[in-house]
Amino acid sequence: MEVKKFELNDIVEMKKQHPCGTNAWKIIRMGADIRIKCQGCGHSVMIPRREFEKKMKKVIKPVSEA
Ligand SMILES: [Zn+2]
């Protein structure tokens, strides 16, 4: 199984886009729970890391390459 790598401040795409129509989220907190912020409307959600790994599709823009 593929291991997804992500870091704080990465911009990621989720499997389901936010109802506002944007599918770009910035990781703003890392821990047992991950907090991501919608780049379209600024709404933020906190989800358990395991769930995040399942729902995250890919890293659009790694902070290390920004
Ligand atoms: Zn949004």
UniProtKB/TrEMBL annotation:
It comes from the Bacteria. InterPro entries: DUF951. Pfam families: DUF951. This is DUF951 domain-containing protein.
